[in-house]
Write a structure and sequence with these properties.
Elements: E1 8-12, E2 15-21, H1 25-35, E3 40-46, H2 47-67, E4 74-80, H3 89-101, E5 109-114, H4 116-128, E6 134-139, H5 142-148, E7 153-158, E8 161-168, E9 173-177, H6 186-203, H7 205-213, H8 215-223, H9 239-261, H10 276-286, H11 292-309, H12 315-327, H13 337-340, H14 350-357, E10 368-370, E11 373-375, E12 378-379, E13 385-387, H15 389-396, E14 399-403, E15 414-417, H16 423-435, E16 439-443, H17 449-460, E17 464-469, E18 474-479, E19 492-494, H18 499-510, E20 524-527, H19 538-546, E21 551-553, E22 562-564, E23 572-577, H20 582-591, E24 599-604, H21 611-623, E25 629-630, E26 636-639, E27 649-651, H22 656-669, E28 672-676, H23 689-694, E29 700-704, E30 707-711, E31 722-725, H24 733-740, E32 750-754, H25 766-776, E33 780-784, E34 787-791, E35 803-804, H26 810-820, E36 827-828, H27 841-847, E37 852-856, H28 874-877, E38 880-883, H29 890-901, E39 904-907, H30 908-916, H31 920-927, H32 929-946, E40 951-954, H33 963-973, E41 978-982, H34 985-992, H35 1005-1019, E42 1022-1025, H36 1033-1047, E43 1064-1068, H37 1080-1083, ...
Parallel strand pairs: 2-9, 3-4, 3-5, 5-6, 6-9, 15-28, 16-27, 19-20, 23-24, 31-32, 35-36, 38-40, 38-41, 39-40, 41-42, 43-44, 43-50, 44-45, 45-46, 46-47, 47-48, 48-49, 51-52, 51-53, 54-56, 57-58, 57-60, 58-59, 60-63, 61-62, 63-64
Antiparallel strand pairs: 1-2, 7-8, 10-13, 11-12, 14-36, 14-37, 16-18, 17-18, 20-22, 21-22, 24-26, 25-26, 28-30, 29-30, 32-34, 33-34, 53-55, 55-56
Bound molecules: nicotinamide-adenine-dinucleotide.
Nicotinamide-adenine-dinucleotide binds near residues 141, 180 and 191.
Length: about 1600
Amino acid sequence: MDTVPDILKVSILGRESIHCGFHLIPYIAHTVLTTLPASVYVLVTDTNVAQFYLSAFEKAFSAEISKLSSAKPRFLSRVIFPGETTKSREGKADIEDFLLLERCTRDTVILALGGGVIGDLVGFVAATFMRGVRFVQIPTTLLAMVDSSVGGKTAIDTPAGKNLIGAFWQPEYIFIDAAFLESLPEREFSNGMAEVVKTAAIWDETEFTSLESNAQLIYNAIRTPSTGNAGRHISTRSTSQSLLLSVIRGSIYVKSHIVTIDERETGLRNLVNFGHTIGHAIEAVLTPHMLHGECVSIGMIFEAEVSRAMGILKQVAVGRLVRCLRAYGLPVSLADQRVTRCPGARGLGVDRLLDIMRVDKKNSGPQKKVVILSSIGATYEQKATAVDDALIAKVLSEAVTVKVDLSTTSGIQHVKMATPGSKSISNRALVLAALAQGTCRLKNLLHSDDTQVMMAALQELKGASFAWEDGGETLVVTGGAGSLEVPTAGKEIYLGNAGTAARFLTTVCSLVSPSAAPDAGTATIITGNARMKQRPIGPLVDALRANGSEITYNESEGCLPLSIAPKGLQGGVIRLAASVSSQYVSSILLCAPYAREAVTLELVGGAVISQPYIDMTIAMMRTFGVLVTRDPGTDVYRIPQGTYVNPAQYAIESDASSATYPLAIAAITGTKCTLENIGSESLQGDARFAVDVLARMGCEVVQTANETTVTGPKRGELKAIGEVDMEPMTDAFLTACALAAVAQGGEGNTTRILGIANQRVKECNRIKAMIDQLAKFGVQTKELDDGLEVYGCPFNTLTRGASVHCYDDHRVAMAFSVLGTVVPDTIIEEKRCVEKTWPNWWDDLENKIGLKVGGIELPRAEGSNTATSGTPSPAASASVILIGMRGSGKSHIGKLASAALSRQFIDADIYFETKHNIGVREFVSVNGWPAFRAAETELLKEIIQKAGTGHVISMGGGIVETPQARDVLKDYAKTGPVVHVLRDIEEIVNYLGDETARPAYGEPITEVFKRREPWFIECANYDFVNHITVGDSEATNSEISRFFKHITGQPNLSENVAAGKRSYFVALTYPDVIPALRHMSDLTTGVDAVELRVDLLRAHNALGAIPSQAYVTAQLAALRRATSLPIIFTVRTISQGGAFPDNSERDAFELLALALRLGVEYIDVEISASERLITELAARKGFSQIIASWHDWSGKMKWNEDVVRSKYTLASRFGDIVKIVGKADTLQDNFVLHDFVAKANLQRGAKPIIAINMGVEGQMSRILNATLSPVTHPLLPSKAAPGQLSFAQIQKALNLLGQLPAKRYFLFGNPIAHSMSPTLHNTGFEVLGLPHTYELLETASVGEELKATLAAPDFGGASVTIPFKLDVIPLLDKLSPAAEAIGAVNTIIPVIEEGNRILYGDNTDWLGIRESIRSRAPSIGAPAAALVIGAGGTARAAIFALQSLGAQRIYLFNRTASKAQALVDAFPDAPVKLIETLDVWPAEGPAPTVIVSTVPASATTTDGTSPGAVLLPLALFDATANGVVVDMAYKPAETPLLTLAKSAAPKWARVMGVEVLLEQGYVQFETWTGRRCPKHVVSKSVLEKYFAAA
Ligand SMILES: NC(=O)c1ccc[n+]([C@@H]2O[C@H](COP(=O)([O-])OP(=O)(O)OC[C@H]3O[C@@H](n4cnc5c(N)ncnc54)[C@H](O)[C@@H]3O)[C@@H](O)[C@H]2O)c1
């Protein structure tokens, strides 16, 4: 064979059967055919893999077969559905039937080409077919390569669980072709990396270290296509490819080694289950939304934490594991957004997880077993270790409590410990030790991203070597004495987002010299992630360039990546601007001794920032043998030439802020604590805490140069110290507060802590946090301008069991755990927030300080119904920023949006004026525009920082004028919504007129508009069209509410797109939809969505077939004014049956992107389009949903052929909804379609599917299709597709097919003969084509007849009216909250709950009242005052309605005051006030703007002619504003109240009782049928009948 590749072989069970390499397809065909002779070869794969590789296999086999001289064997292939659901009994039978049909015999060889699903399934088929045939594994996912293909385990799933039926069956060969990974989705690659990292973690530290530092390089191998079979031979293999292959081989090697020793899984093989005990439990809850490897990744961290809590594994190792898994894109905690967004995430309770773990195969009896790591690369035992449930529970729980035993007063306990190393000192020590000569043992190094990438980089530059001792506690650095070499060509040094590393290494890399190696590069390249590529490095590069270094920016000016030529550092005078970061200064200082000339470093450009850090660098350089001098009184430093000398050992000083906690624990509990590595010589401000605070509080403090010992006074005897200035140690003030809470003495037990104002803008507002949380203990405080006062209490009087919220701030958590050591049962709610600086704090409390810590599971908050709930994710809670031209309506829309979202509104102009104490206009005239723009940009940053979530923010029109502000906006738009408010420029000009409140432009507005418009578009990710002046205010309000809810995660999607329900849409096939809008209510009868066929839109006089963006925007805006239904945005191409040109894909996608910007709910995307464009669009879809569609117009597509499966798979990948349209020639074609849909729906996580056949023969498929069936309407200009039926036609057909049984609905009451309800509902049923009926059931009482009606199987629901609204309640199973509150039921709905039919009572009367008020007078909003007349059941509904509208006061008038008082008592939370007369309004309140009368018309009078009736005075309409008057009396149409309103308050809206009846009836109709009531037709026929009878 001419293409013999270079192969790495691994042996398993004594045979070298695993062959690894790149581009192996011809090799596989050759090897299989020549070494495994057979009469037939069957390759089984799935549709995803087939599209990439099947034809290459077919070709290779046919080429090899043609070379055979003997009888030619057959080569067959079988393509099946991808995904776990295929790994089933049915899936196995399907392949077996295929083999039998093809008359395969015992000498068959089966090849499994695919991921683990294919390998497991096909392996099992091979194990049992003809009692076992030979098979070959060709894994195509990383998981399959390193795990599932190796070991011979095969299996299928059953409904009872995964992998329950299977066999051990070893493949003849396993061919690992790493080139397959290039087509694998990255998420699947990461999924496999979890296994790779796991294997290294239990077995091989060297391999783990390589994984830690090479993530970027490994990804390069799969991201860069290896064209021309690159990599097949070692000579053409890239560094990345070699590394990838070696990683895969390493992992396989371990697995095959373990399998060889322990084939049938007894003890050793359990080790590969590291992370799986907990990971499997998580997977069981989250599947199929999270992948196996992702769950195992989280499981590994939890299990490592179990080992750490047992005192076996060091935090260093846990930290390395976390960072390594993260580097491969894997989640490491349950707080990861990928987890919290899963629908099942709420089920991740500790008890649930433990319960699932009970059935793990590894358990011995009730004891759970976990693989315990002892260090990276080694396990504690050669098998899984038994662990107590309590320990696992503690690790899993999110909150903790420090257990206190106040009865112990035993002698002084002495704790000696070191606290985590200081981050700044760790970073410096690492560079110094690496640049020095000799070996240094670094102790107490803080492991962080910075230290990790720094070590990797220094190794890459051959500048030093590193080794770990003491399980990672000590880092042994062998320094290179400043010799550094340029790395291999093409190898970049990747720094992630590690800022300190980037700054220090920039100068380090300038020290590099050329390398003698043949493949050495010409420059050192340092790069980072996207965030790093935005962080500034300019001043440092400028200084080095000026000194002669050759540094180029590879991408953007002023940021990484950098190319640094290996020229060495020149030295002499170096000038550096040091007002931005002291790290630039430290970077040069650290490297300066190695320059060719002694360095004089002059700091220029204003005040030097953070001098203490510069002093720290200089002090540490001295320890490593280089003495820096500073010219007195200047910022000039002189650094001599020299080589650092490594001290034998260097103990990194503890982080001084962390040190305050154990010392404070000694202080508060009356014990003794000695901290190593921190003492009087420390350069950190917080190191003074012991002397300046603890000693004054009564502790004995002994401090040596680098050790501190604190002995507390007897418990309860800490002294309050009056006042303390904590400016030099601000971070320690939280610890001081915790102690002050129990400190006594002085004036009022007061401790006044000052100098800490900056703590208001740390992780949270820490001053407020301490005040609020101390209050939970009963501790009083007072906030001061730059601090707070704490009034101490005896510790044993503090409230026990307080649950401390930590604001995700490590310092709050640790400070309150100090207080928790003397207040029993204190709960610290978010234990993980300590991870920022002291990840093993809770373990150290237990293992080093000797306290007991327990896990606590907090009750989970239930979802609330307020507008701000919905699907919370950070992006959903992100504040909305509005930008747009001045006068475009930002403030107005912003206020309405914030009301709709229940958020706070910020107007940047007002914010500006409050902040600067001067109006915008004056500011500009005093300081000029540039100063204003700069201040405005700062303001924008400040608002984002302080109000980045939960707000609606309106920015000034000119915010886009500077590039800086545009960058801030664009950056924000990556995760949060920036909305461009669009308004016609003519309208703006008219609106602004000669307004003077804001600074004048000084140029025509239209010019300003031209300049800014592109910037608005560039900065915003959404557009909102302001049509305030066009639409009526109800439509405008509802569109504002819809749009802003959409972009904040509460999209207006159809509830009927759900399993078990049916949904429909109507397609608007107009060139211009505007003339059709008046028919919209008819056109949309019954449907759930409206499709806008954008490809059919044509502006009058427009040329060409592509509608302009502006036209489409205007059409959509117009459509929104006419319907509140969700919109489907479709650009159908000609080849898919539409009118959009096929060769204009870009234009089509620009229109689709426009739809995203406009917040369209559903976007139809044709899967025949370019995959890249689809992927890009899908990545930006926000809260819109994608309908991924495929239409076959050829009529050749058959639903039972592979092509449909592959279209389906592709569409499922991109779409939230799949749409496949074929064509039927016979009725039979519809059955095949139906069968396909049924099977597809069986797959786990299956997407909703729209599947229909066109043509008259296909009508049946339209009837049976459940999701978004397209329907037509007689009013449409043309059917959107042949064979379309109307909504009503489909309902009738469904009824005939037995899919929609007729239901009977009733009105219960007495007397009801004249009720309008039958007309209302029966008209609705008829218009929608529903087979139901609505009848009157007039009975004397709630008796047997009524009970029998409720029990009948065809009972659909009932309305209930007087006098049964209360009496019917005992017959019902459950009441809605509204019915409970009102105390009456007017609607009965039979519902299925947990498999049982129950009767549910609701009350829609209040909704009728509320809707009547809202729709007639939307501007009223929350009325300042409202009046209810009467005190019966309807009055209750009225009060409930007004309360829900937010009425600030509700006057209640009734002739019998005692009855009214009962009503007031029934609504304790409502602002109801009894009034005794209607003639005057209470002095403190205004006259009402909403009046609801609930008494019969005959009981009211305007002239006193009816004795005993309520006299209605003119004073009712005293309010100056306009209002609404609702008379619930049903007859006559015009009651005395409405007549009076007509003359006394002609501008008020008047609502008749029958109108309220209609409104509540619409709601009933919709709850019963799941369909919107066709209001237009229904109201017409009800009102006609009502007035005819009147
Ligand atoms: N037998 C064992 O020892 C063992 C061990 C671990 C896991 N498993 C089993 O493995 C299965 C999971 O395997 P998996 O993660 O490989 O999932 P998978 O087989 O479902 O593959 C993942 C996805 O990637 C697609 N795909 C595969 N290769 C591709 C390629 N090269 N390019 C593009 N797409 C590609 C597949 O079609 C599929 O959609 C589970 O059923 C699990 O139980 C078995």
